Request: fold
Amino acid sequence: MELIKWAALSLVTALTAGIAGFGFAARRVVVVWYHLVAIVLSVFLISLSFSFLGDWLRDFLSIRFFEVVIGLVLVGIGVVLTLTPPLYPGGKDLLLLTLAVQLDTGLFSLSYGLSHGRGTGMAVFISLLLLGSMLGGMMLGQRRWSNWRLNLALPYLASVAMILIGLIRML
Reply:
């Protein structure tokens, strides 16, 4: 049962990274190789620090409060992305989608640290998993569809999916 729980949590985190990658491609955000390196390094450091924090504060911390707050932030990021039209360089979109991935990774690592202690190997695993799902989402977002209505709605699908992930995190 414990293995199924951690597999589901890591799949939801990987789905968030896939949605962010899809949003990068669908909203025409300029993502250069050093952006991806910075995202992977920041995810690794956040994962490492939050798992250590969860190990140290195991007796004093409740994970449910952080799940609700981060879920609300993810819903807020999705609403902001829905209300703003995609602009070409996409600096704000890059920051918001990266923040969503980092918050979700931090929550995953905090819950891992609360239940299992420090997770150095888990930080490496989750950063590589998120890189792969982000690249997969980018490849999926670059596909062009024949329906023009779907092409117009494509940049907003990532924001609606981010709202749904935030609602799932709050439950």
User: Anything to note?
Assistant: The chain has a mean pLDDT of 88. The longest helix spans residues 91-116. Helices lie at 2-26, 33-56, 63-83, 91-116, 120-141, 148-170. The two ends are 19 Å apart (CA to CA).
